[in-house]
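A further point concerns the way the authors explain their paired sequence and structure data. Showing the layout once, in full, would remove most of the difficulty. For illustration, here is how one protein appears when written out as sequence plus structure tokens:
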Amino acid sequence: MRQKLHPMMLVGTGSDVGKSILATAFCRIFRQDGYCPAPFKAQNMALNSYVTSDGLEMGRAQVVQAEAAGVPCQADMNPLLLKPQSDHTSQVVLNGRPVGNLDAYDYFRKEGRDELRREVCAAYDRLSARYNPVVLEGAGSISEINLRDTDLVNLSMAAHAGADVFLVADIDRGGVFASVYGSLALLRPEERRLIKGVLINKFRGDLRLFQPGVKMMEELCGIPVLGVIPFLQGLAIDEEDSVSLAFKHTEAEAGKVNVAVVLLPHLSNFTDFGALEQDPRIHLFYTRRPEELLEADVIILPGSKSTIADLESLRRSGAAQAILCARKKGTVILGICGGYQMMGQEILDPHHVEGDMECYPGLGLLPVRTCMMSDKVTRRTRFRLQPEGGEWLEGYEIHMGETVLGEGASPSPLIYLADGGTDGYRMDERCMGTYLHGILDYPAFLHLLFAPLAGKWAKTSDFDARQFKETQYDRLANHVRTYADMPQIYRILTTSTPHEAL
């Protein structure tokens, strides 16, 4: 049996410094070294989410980390998930179930925080009893002193877990000495004692030139620099948020199947398209520009956290009209989840789930209508692409609406479920929609989707998305192992005497 390691926590000098990706790396490293790790983030804010085998919802970042660790996903890995609905409000998902909507002011008030703290600590305790080690991830900066008393995810959680904390700084954005020193200087003495080392991330250039800087930082801060991790080019691992999507492949490319994902303001679950992005036969790009949508061979309307608001935005921008024009000229159009709802005749919201508008017209591409419901559907689903025979596949659903056939419409399901039901609608081979996330990972569905593009779509050499993902996790782990001081990190995780090691 492997030696028990202390929990490890990765916190940051700010947002987007690489905490999530390094947590993923260490989950895979510990797995490679014979341990049984598991990820944990007490509170996550993201539109990317996932459904566990028991029908609970969790943040996608911890799903990636669980995959790297080789363990099943469970809601305890991310007990508190905030899903933004506007600039000021979020849906609160606690222990995998939505418990209501709150604006930022109400959420961060001290009142009620003790209850949330008990819940996230209990989730951590359940994980800690089963896994060795737990790799915790913080959020944003550890030095947001205005939020110190309401913190659930950074150093208060580290103290509860008894974790060894490692501060991650992004050297690529500049100011790394100030960000590390300032982050530590703003901590209380008892908080600062939790920090056992620094990891400098996203280095570019000749590492030898920064060696004097390492020594200076250690002397200045009094804790070891445990690695200077170079920027890793071409790594293809699911991202936590959609900030970078607008910069991904914004033009069509000759010689490939051009797939345009409509860049919605509240786009969710863009990880649906990770396999397409890596498939060498496909050129995937994100856009809402009408002229770029009209250049695509396939248009995908993705999931949305605010379906009606996003559909209204598409109409204002001209993208909705471009989609209708693309349909007339023979472009393949697929809607997933909220995108499927948009493709119908109308969206009803009698319970004001999304806002004050009770009825809003859809794009009219499919003869279905959607009624928004107060209860969220979260479930994993086994399915196949024909009513009899064929391989059983698996996807998941996360939505607030129920979609039914419009009056006088004939049934034409896209998906046949293991429980005898159906999902989605197939108007013809160039127009279809479904509630199922994850469907684009399967070659069988891609062959169905791209069948009208026989001149461009090659049916040979199917891309193995799952094997590719495993290769990427190993590549990331090997990269971090090369540049991090793993012997010293293991000494800290077993003895916690890093200050003496300086």
Q: What stands out?
A: The first helix runs from residue 19 to 32. The chain has two domains: 8-45+58-74+111-236+471-501, 256-455.
